[in-house]
Write a structure and sequence with these properties.
Strand order of the largest sheet: 8-7-6-9-10-11-12
Strand content: 5-15%
Order of helices and strands: EHEHEHEHEHHEHEHEHEHEHEEH
CATH architecture of the largest domain: 3-Layer(aba) Sandwich
CATH superfamily of the largest domain: NAD(P)-binding Rossmann-like Domain
Number of helices: 12
Shape: elongated
Helix content: 25-40%
CATH topology of the largest domain: Rossmann fold
Oligomer: single chain
Number of strands: 12
Distance between the termini: 37 Å
Structural class: alpha/beta
Radius of gyration: 22 Å
Length: about 350
């Protein structure tokens, strides 16, 4: 079956997407689409963009894309598909696109893998007490045997891992945890006991999960119902020596309450997202010894970004062939985007 080359417009900030396309992927993009402008646009208002927008059947967006709202849709009468080269489209795509029958695809499924890999590494290092042993070894410069004297609770065998959210990433994490000797708890208001069991976990309410887990990992979206779901009361339920991992959204945690718990030394944290982002230079999170703080790198970075591009290119080829899209977003999924 031949592949049709629809007219398309790229819309994103180039400096925020330097690794998006490998050379062979750029060539493939050109073979799949007829670009009405050779370079991506940063906004839909500058001179000359209106004509390009009016012609475009496909809009390819990425990080730093301008918002696609009702006014933009009015200016794009031929638009049939928005293909996003990253994960969540919630910040750039107005839900009115679904009412107009415009298809939306994103690369959230491909972005879930590196986040899940980061999470697995963080879980294993947390239970191995790697930071504690590193600091003691650096200070003492001698044999530390038996290691458990320096790191109570050391080891991954038979630990309890609490996963908050059966999202794409949460499910990927659950799959990666399967080979290990963990008890896995899952909290998700949309996943019952049978679904949790099928995912290799045991369903638990959030308080019970937080209180029972050696590691709590967050994979829920930022919506009003999840804001500060780990508040001061719930953070206080965590076991002494437990670790909290957040690769999702900062609003899920009361950050001031978390800093108080971390200052006490009672728990540890691995934080890839913070509020604000980046943190101001004076934030105590930079210096607390029981915090692993990373600059929002759990998701696709470097060469991993090209996995996202490969997914979108495959979708564009399906679209050109008139085949069903594999990663089309439903209207009812928009609200639960991260």
């Amino acid at each position: 079956m031949s592949v049709r080359r629809p007219k398309a417009l790229l819309a994103y900030a180039p400096e925020r997407n330097p690794d998006t396309f490998a050379p062979d992927q750029s060539a493939r993009l050109g073979a799949l689409l007829e670009l009405v402008r050779p370079e991506p646009v940063r906004a839909f208002s500058p001179d000359g963009v209106a004509d390009a927008l009016r012609e475009a059947e496909v809009l390819v967006t990425g990080w730093g894309a301008p918002t696609v709202d009702a006014a933009v849709l009015d200016a794009a009468p031929r638009l049939k598909l928005i293909a996003h080269l990253a994960g969540s489209v919630k910040a750039i795509v107005d839900p009115s696109v679904f009412a107009r029958g415009i298809a939306v695809v994103n690369a959230a499924d491909a972005n879930a893998l590196p986040v899940a890999e980061y999470t697995l590494a963080a879980i294993l290092f947390a239970n191995k007490r790697v930071l504690t042993l590193r600091d003691v070894y650096r200070r003492e410069r001698r044999s530390l045997k038996p290691l458990r004297d320096h790191a109570p609770g050391l080891g991954n065998y038979r630990k309890t891992i609490g996963i908050v959210g059966a999202s794409r990433i949460g499910r990927r994490v659950l799959a990666l945890l399967a080979p290990f000797d963990f008890e896995v708890l899952l909290y998700d208001p949309y996943a019952g006991a049978d679904e949790a069991r099928a995912l290799g976990a045991r369903a638990a309410d959030l308080d019970a999960l937080v209180a029972a887990s050696d590691v709590v990992s967050l994979h829920a979206p930022a919506i009003p119902a999840t804001r500060h779901m780990l508040d001061r009361r719930r953070l206080a339920l965590m076991r002494n020596g437990a670790t909290l991992i957040n690769t999702a959204r900062p609003a899920l945690i009361d950050q001031d309450a978390l800093i108080d718990e971390l200052r006490s030394g009672r728990i540890d944290a691995v934080l890839d997202v913070t509020e604000p982002e980046p943190l101001p230079p004076y934030s105590p999170l930079y210096d607390l010894p029981n915090v692993v703080l990373t600059p929002h790198c759990a998701g696709a970075v470097g060469t991993e970004v090209q996995r996202l591009s490969a997914l979108v290119l495959d979708e564009l080829e399906r679209y050109g062939r008139g085949e069903p899209l594999r990663y089309a977003l439903r209207a009812d999924e928009w609200e639960r985007q991260a």
